[in-house]
Design brief:
alpha+beta; binds molybdenum atom; globular; 31% strand; OxRdtase_Mopterin-bd_dom; binds ligand MTE; 197 residues; Sulfite Oxidase, Chain A, domain 2
Length: 197
């Protein structure tokens, strides 16, 4: 690699991270397998004027676009140049009217997994609902049928097997945040654990 492209790669890797070519699988608990998607729905609730429930068929018919990003796991691996097919956050948000008090979102996944995000980070143009990764449908291990992707925060915020969004006035810790991870998780500021600023 030339010095030039080396330094460019270095600029893309946050402190303490190492680039991996693989795609490690990390989560707590078991992988959900589905055989009847008519039982799957996606709920939008909390501080909204009216709750919405979106069926699997409707969700998969939402407009999609391509996203390219780098992802950074708190366990120190980073994976560069991911190509995703995803549903923009705004496409789901068109289904509800947020109440003005809504400032945070709790992501809800299968088996009660949760992750919290400030509204602004959730609504960022770079955040999306991922359905395909590097040309393939998401595998069960990586979050089929849909996962959150918030590439500017550590990857634990990118909840796999996403089933709902809850809008909140105040921040609350999700699953990993209750277990010692940082409330925000900015990889560029090494916000790995809750004692880091
Ligand atoms: N539902 C769910 N999503 C989850 C997790 C989890 O335990 N449950 N773990 C998070 C963590 S800690 C990481 S690092 C990433 C890993 O995603 P991957 O297995 O696709 O690499 O998923 C995140 N999303
Ligand atoms: Mo993680």
């Amino acid at each position: 690699m030339s010095d030039d492209s080396m330094s460019r790669t270095k600029d893309r890797v946050p402190p303490g991270q190492t680039v991996t070519e693989g795609f490690p699988v990390l989560h707590y608990g078991s992988v959900p397998y589905y055989n009847d998607m008519s039982k799957w729905d996606f709920r939008v609730f909390g501080l909204v004027e009216e709750e919405a429930t979106i069926s699997h068929k409707e969700f998969m018919a939402l407009p999609r676009q391509e996203y390219r990003n780098d992802i950074h796991c708190v366990t120190t691996w980073s994976k560069l140049d991911n190509v995703w097919e995803g549903i923009p956050v705004r496409e789901v948000m068109k289904r509800v009217n947020l109440k003005p008090e809504a400032k945070f979102v709790m992501l809800h996944s299968e088996h009660g997994f949760t992750a919290n995000l400030p509204l602004e980070d959730f609504m960022a143009e770079t955040s999306f609902f991922g359905v395909r990764h590097n040309g393939q449908l998401l595998t069960p291990e990586h979050g089929y049928p849909v996962r959150m992707v918030v590439p500017h925060l550590y990857f634990w915020k990118s909840a796999k097997w996403l089933r709902g969004l809850e809008f909140m006035e105040k921040d609350k810790p999700g699953f990993w945040e209750r277990n010692g991870y940082h409330m925000y998780g900015d990889p560029w500021r090494s916000q790995r654990y809750d004692f880091e600023d």
